[in-house]
Design a protein that fits this description.
single chain, alpha/beta, 3 helices, 5 strands, 31% helix
Length: 137
């Protein structure tokens, strides 16, 4: 006896719409109940100082060198004989300042050795603060 012969088999249907509805409700619930804390913000209480601002700016010693190897200290053309002689010229131009800032303005086509000569002369003169000037394009 075969009782199932007259019945046809039904196909299984998978309905995803109720599953998507439930997931959306869960996501909305999570978005509404989650608290977001900001870890990037730091509450910092900085110390206070009662000192006055320094009114004296360090003296700047402007030294320029062009592409031809000509040197100038504070706009005055100065011949470069040796590093020791140029260091003496730098000390004279500083007029007794203890720690002037040596600002080197070198032409883009100046030789590397010319800039090294200025740095060596500044070392011999006892000037440790050296900066390089640039210009914006």
């Amino acid at each position: 006896m075969n009782f199932r012969r007259s019945r046809e088999r039904e196909e299984i249907e998978l309905n995803l719409i109720p599953l998507i509805d439930i997931l959306i409700v869960v996501l909305i619930f999570l978005f509404l109940t989650t608290t977001y804390s900001k870890y990037a913000e730091l509450q910092i209480n900085l110390p206070e100082a009662a000192a006055e601002r320094a009114t004296d700016k360090p003296q700047t010693l402007n030294i320029a060198v062009d592409a031809g190897g000509k040197y100038a200290i504070n706009g005055v053309p100065t011949p470069f004989g040796s590093t020791q002689a140029f260091a003496t010229a730098m000390r004279d131009a500083a007029k007794g300042a203890r720690e002037p800032v040596v600002a080197i303005s070198a032409d883009a086509a100046a030789k590397h050795q010319d800039v090294v000569n200025i740095m060596e002369s500044a070392r011999l003169a006892g000037y440790n603060h050296i900066s390089f000037t640039t210009q914006r394009r």
